[in-house]
Amino acid sequence: MNLNVNNPTQPQRQLDRIIAIGLAILVLFLYLRTMAPTVLDGDNGEFQYMAYILGVPHSTGYPLFMLLVRLFILLPLGDVAFRVNLFSVLCTTVSIPIIYAVALRLTRARIPSILATLVLALIPSVWVGALETKPYAFHFLLGVLALFFAVRWHQDGHSRDFYALALTYGLGLTNHHILAFTAPAFALVVWLNRARVKRSMIGRGVLLVLVPLLLYAYIPIRANYFIAQQDPKNWELYQREDAILKGQVTQYYINTPQGFINLITGLDNIFKLGFLHEKEQADRSFNALYLLVQQFGYAGIALALLGFVESFRRDRKLWAILFLYALGISFIAYVLRAKSTVIYFSLAYFILALWIGFCIDRVMRWTARLHRLMPYVVALLALALPISLLISNYSQLDQSANYAPRDYAQAVFNDDLTPNAVVLAPWEVSEPMHYFQFVENQRPDLLVVNVSPSTRQFNTMLQSARKLNRPFYLAQFSPELPKPNTPRSIQAVPLPLLQAPKPQNRLTDVRIIPEVQVLGFDLQSVQPGKPARISVYYQAPERIYPMYSVTLYVNDITGETWAEYSGFPGSVYFPTYRWYEVGEYYRDAWTINLPSDAPSGLYNLELSWYEYNQKTDSSDVAHEKKVSLGTIRVGDLTATNIAHPATARIGDSMNFLGWSGDTSAARGEILPIDLFWRAEGTLSESLTVFTHLVDSTGRVVADADSPPSSGLYPTDKWQSGESVRDRHILKIPADLAPGNYAIEIGVYRPSNGIRLPIQNGAEQADKIVLTQVSVH
Fold first, then answer.
1. Helix, strand, or coil here: 230?
2. pLDDT tens per residue, range 689-730
3. Which end of the chain is more exposed for a tag (fewer CB within 10 A), N or C?
4. Is the C-alpha dihedral spanning 168, 173, 177, 182 positive or negative?
5. What's the pTM?
6. Where are the domains of the chain?
7. Is the peptide bond preceding residue 599 cis, with omega within 30 degrees of 0?
8. Can you identify the CATH homologous superfamily of domain 404-482+490-634?
């Protein structure tokens, strides 16, 4: 169980190599299983295409990361986005054996080292870092490696470890500057070992730290390469370097010596340091504690605290190194205002995991005095911590089915964008769009720009585009902010349309307000449980002064509302009072998502406008301006796949074609029955179809009487010669006796209850016995 790492035997070394590799393989399998399959959004998408084109990403530019990833994606594995995702996974995987080696050197025990390594690999901070394409996984690897060299040099005294530490630290400064805050810990290592440090070692060490910084020359070299390729048309649109508008060079880059220094030092983000007020400091403190509990849970924190004490008791020098290392990382992660705070803490969590290892080792050593098997009982109990982390984090962190960034980007590309258009998109969409442009050469004619529509730059570009008669779109989400359990769609809003639209469903002289005409709409086939796009087109023959909001209602023909979608005509960023030019065309678009249990039938589309009060952020619903867009068909209403064909004449204008459904059902459940009809002429009245479950005495034990399609496709709406599918749902009573029952159907007039005559061959009756059903 114990191991003297200063003098390990050859078999012990071999065993430790096997354990380290085994841990790496386990973690690699887990990360690969949860890795995103393709392009990601935001910063992740930025690094996926920036590495391919060797561009200049946001500060600090990450030159070493860019170059290494560019080499890695030469491997023929999947698409480029997949390879960049894989690079991050491998960086974290490679760190696993190193973590085990550090834990082994400190605790001198295998089982606690294994458990500490597994705990660290399974906390959200490290796991998320492995699944993102940002430089965090590589940063984590360099931070772990630097501490490994520091500990080994401190323990063994080999100068090669001192030089390796210096080089790793220097390389880390070319990737993420958070590593700079480990300097106090490494300075302490040097101080504690000053007796063995020669002047020549210091000189070489400083050189090894500084030489990698020459990699930052990559930034002006690549930035100027792209900036030199200026498109005059884009300069007319907005007078800033073309490469920055296109996304080949970060918008934070200013092509001056000072701009270069600000980028590589992170000074362009210095505003994120510190606290704006006391409440923010309190919130940041609470968040740090919350993240700590999120990583380890209360049990893990308790083990780390006990391990903190045990580490101090065993070796105060090593304890001080670990403490300063964690303190430096925690300080910058705490004072830096950023969304990635949890990942910034990851190297501090590394130290906590080591302290957990100390605690487990201490308890195992103590219980060994009670019984020789007790340490293994302790180990099994401690194993509950990584197992609980795996169970609680897996479903939350799994990205294996994350195709949303790809789908959002493609939705914008496929939104009938005019050639050479300008597309302003939010960061989470612009970056996957840039990936498809630069990596897969999709729509390279478009100028995709990440600009907030609430800024002056947006307005400047919009006005310039209008003067240049250049197509201009805003990629806009609906809803704009993500909401739990709410489908989200995106559209490229034209501001405005440059040509008169030709809607599939035209409306004639329909005005929702006196100044706006509704020209018509386009609509995809609407199926319950599946998204369908609808586009509504407007023309403004007159100037509009108020600001309006809009709601689209999807109601069935009985008046029940199944869906409603609210927003602002065109875009909230281009409200109706800015529709300056008389006669221009605009478009609204929504994605209809009816619930999967919505019945097939006829639905009405209704459009309502309301005057919007910007001061109160509310719509004047009391003064609704409403128009009906028309009636649409939802679901499958046609007769296909008839399992049991039949022929019977119903009255004068209907034929029964057959039915589909099960012939067995359980008590307390439902039994769907599809009936198929054909209109042989025009039906002038709405008829009711009865579907009865009857026992051997003829008593009705369950029924489902309704006009066809639950009243949503009544017979008086049928077209002559049309075949119709009509679903009825029988609810089997829970207390019904098991046995065989018959299903009977027929048609009657709801006004007087008289059944229509049925001619079935030579027989005439008022009902059809479909089949026998076994109820169990």
1. coil
2. 999 999 999 999 999 999 999 899 999 999 899 999 999 999
3. C
4. positive
5. 0.86
6. 10-397, 404-482+490-634, 644-775
7. no
8. C2 domain (2.60.40.150)
